[in-house]
Design goal:
The chain is of the alpha+beta class and 696 residues long. Helix content is 50%, strand content 13%. The protein contains 23 helices and 19 strands. α6 runs antiparallel to α7 and α22 runs antiparallel to α23.
Length: 696
């Protein structure tokens, strides 16, 4: 109770101080608050000096408003602008382009608040704010940015309404209500444009939430995947048409790395579209898995697919406006990186055999090792070959021997393997014996190649979250994984996961290594161990619906809607026709509403007309412009004492009409006509009858 009373008291003091400020100061402070909210999403992406300058200018302008001090002249403002342009050149290297342009716009928005001398300056500031709200989506198109932009737009519209409200003190609540009603009236037009306006490419590139994140790449250095595994953001979401496969079968194939220079693994350098010297054959068995993937933006020109997704009609993934090619290593590649959120359906065959038909010389990259690296590994492999048990052994037997070595020699799976030197495989295999999945996969492939067995490293994602959210399984960047494939003469390419030999729970149950939780996380775990997980699932479910229904509303879904509306072969021209038809229909409806509104009579005027008709029956002629008090005087003059009750009723109507706006709302309030209570009209009719038939 005491805390509530104290909070209420502080709120009343704050409102009292706010109401005591002059109108100009209140409007300026509100506008500065809106400008700060508009600039806030930009500041983390701007140089430090831009943030400091914007905050300093807004604080300076607020102090001037509170003290009612004069604004600075043009010279200081121009000087600050010149310094800002020089700093932009220094930090960005140019004054042209997206990033320098947004930096200068942020500076101009802040400096424009120092020139709020007339309504024209306020209009410039407001419309510059609307433009900066639009540019927020260049960083991200998340639901949080959308809510922030919506609040910023509401604030700018409220400031715009305030600038058109004369008087000493229009209420901020009233201006906010006007802005909210205007926004609500614009919602139908927004929905129509969203549904039917043809989808085109972004004007200035994709949002920056598609870049700057850790993720898979076309190369691999030891330790890189361990860094990716500490990123818990979602890489893709997958939904299965039937029962979800077992966790140990959820391998999402990404880049296949065959070239090793001793430090880094890279992909085969084969020109796009050139067929390999041979052919790929795949034999499938068992039941296929139909699935759908929503892939988050990345910088990789590869489409992760569930193993094994083949290039068959009705089974291969398809992206609108993109060319896909399944390469000989069965990786689905794109011409350009998938830098926007995409959605595709496909079919996978978990049980398969992948053969290569052609010259074995095509597999020379999968056997080559760079000279001068890992000499102990080469000696160990040569000694194994000299063992009579393995002298003539096949690929499967040699791979089983390597896996048994991993199980027997105390290897450990960790997120913090540390830094390895030049002979990384030697150091891992013989000395330290700790590493992440890429250490196990890379060392396994190197040892197989040292045994003259073709082998390669495959990167991608393995596993998913334990439970789906809204039917979608989340595959996070922390599910990034590396495994191996080796060539067997009878079985073709065979997948083997060396990590499973050391950490079976990582593969069998998708149990990832967890980073140490901080103080906040530990506190939540003590209160409820599952609370953070449930909160995250709830947030991600909302984000997924936003992504599926808003951000993934593509041209293909527009065409699908047109097919449901009866268009056999929809096109962009059909979208424009439908949009034009809807716009014309809405325009005609608005014109009809306006015409109807002009013909409607104001309720007050209709009441005055009914009163004048009643008085005329009593022989009292009044003008249409006479207020009720003037009509009461005419009644007394014409009817005398028998019209006193009628005159009193008219004076009561005068008070109902004008007194409430003055007594209750104060100066500057709306003059909306109050409706008289029904009993007043009944009293007026009774008084009119009494004046016609006076009692003796």
């Amino acid at each position: 109770m005491a805390l509530t009373a104290a909070t209420t008291g502080l709120r009343r003091i704050g409102l009292a101080r706010w109401s005591q400020l002059p109108r100009e100061a209140r409007d300026t402070l509100f506008l500065l608050g809106v400008v700060a909210w508009v600039l806030l999403p930009h500041l983390p992406h701007r140089p430090w000096w831009c943030t400091a300058l914007a905050a300093g200018v807004l604080a300076w302008r607020a102090a001037l408003a509170l003290r009612a001090a004069p604004l600075p002249g043009r010279l200081p403002v121009v000087g600050v602008l010149g310094v800002s342009a020089a700093l932009t050149w220094w930090s960005e290297g140019t004054l042209l382009g997206r990033e320098p342009g947004i930096t200068l716009l942020v500076v101009l928005m802040a400096l424009k608040t120092l020139e709020l001398r007339a309504r024209r300056d306020a209009m410039v500031t407001l419309f510059l704010g609307f433009f900066l709200v639009l540019t927020q989506f260049l960083y991200s198109q998340s639901i949080g940015i959308a809510v922030s932009a919506l609040l910023a737009t509401w604030g700018l519209m409220t400031a715009l309404a305030l600038s058109h409200m004369p008087g000493p003190g229009p209420a901020l609540r009233r201006a906010a209500g006007v802005a909210a009603r205007a926004a609500v009236l614009g919602v139908p037009a927004m929905v129509v444009l969203f549904v039917f306006f043809p989808r085109v490419g972004p004007l200035w590139g994709l949002p920056q939430d598609a870049a700057g994140r850790t993720g898979l790449s076309g190369t691999l250095r030891l330790g890189e995947l361990a860094q990716i595994a500490q990123d818990d953001t979602i890489a893709l979401r997958v939904r299965f048409d039937g029962t979800a496969p077992a966790p140990q079968t959820l391998y999402f194939r990404g880049p296949v790395l065959s070239v090793f220079d001793g430090r880094e693994w890279t992909r085969t350098a084969r020109p796009w579209g050139r067929p390999p010297p041979g052919r790929v054959e795949v034999q499938t068995s068992g039941q296929p898995v139909d699935y759908e993937i929503t892939l988050e933006p990345s910088t990789l020109a590869v489409l992760p697919t569930l193993e094994l997704t083949l290039n068959r009609p009705g089974e291969a993934p398809a992206l609108e406006g993109r060319v896909l090619e399944q390469q000989p290593d069965l990786v689905w590649a794109t011409v350009q990186p998938v830098a926007e959120r995409v959605r595709y359906r496909a079919r996978a065959w978990p049980e398969h055999q992948h053969f290569w038909r052609g010259s074995m010389l095509a597999l020379r990259e999968e056997v080559t090792l760079p000279p001068g690296y890992n000499p102990r590994a080469l000696e160990w492999a040569a000694a194994l070959r000299r063992d009579p048990r393995y002298a003539l052994a096949g690929s499967d037997t040699l791979a089983a021997a390597l896996l048994q070595h991993l199980r027997d020699q105390g290897f450990r799976y960790t997120l913090e393997p540390g830094t390895y030197g030049r002979h990384a495989v030697d150091e891992f295999w013989f000395d330290r014996r700790i590493g992440f999945c890429e250490h196990f996969a890379a060392a396994f492939v190197v040892m197989l190649r040292a045994l003259d067995v073709p082998a390669r490293v495959v990167t991608g994602y393995q596993g998913a979250d334990p439970t789906p959210v809204d039917g979608w399984w989340a595959v996070r960047r922390s599910h990034a994984h590396a495994w191996a494939e080796y060539w067997d003469e009878g079985r073709g390419w065979v997948r083997v996961d060396p990590t499973a030999a050391v950490a079976p729970d990582r593969i069998g149950r998708s149990r990832q290594l967890q980073r140490p939780v901080g103080l906040v996380g530990a506190t939540f775990d003590q209160i409820s161990p599952q609370l953070l997980t449930r909160l995250r699932q709830w947030r991600e479910a909302i984000e997924n619906r936003w992504n599926q229904h808003v951000l993934n509303y593509s041209r293909g879904r527009q065409f699908e809607l047109l097919r449901q509306l009866g268009f056999a072969t929809p096109s962009a021209e059909d979208l424009l026709r439908v949009l034009g038809t809807v716009v014309v229909a809405v325009g005609l409806a608005g014109a009809a509403w306006a015409w109807h509104g002009r013909r409607r009579t104001d309720p007050w005027l209709r009441l005055q007309q009914r009163i004048a008709a009643r008085l005329l029956r009593l022989g009292v002629e009044v003008a249409a412009s006479d207020p009720p008090r003037a009509r009461a005087a005419r009644v007394r003059q014409r009817l005398g004492a028998r019209g006193e009750a009628l005159a009193l009723a008219l004076e009561a109507l005068e008070r109902l009409r004008y007194a409430p706006a003055t007594a209750q709302a104060g100066a500057g309030a709306a003059t909306r006509t109050p409706r008289p209570p029904p009993q007043w009209w009944a009293q007026f009719v009774a008084a009119a009858r009494g004046a016609r038939n006076p009692q003796p």
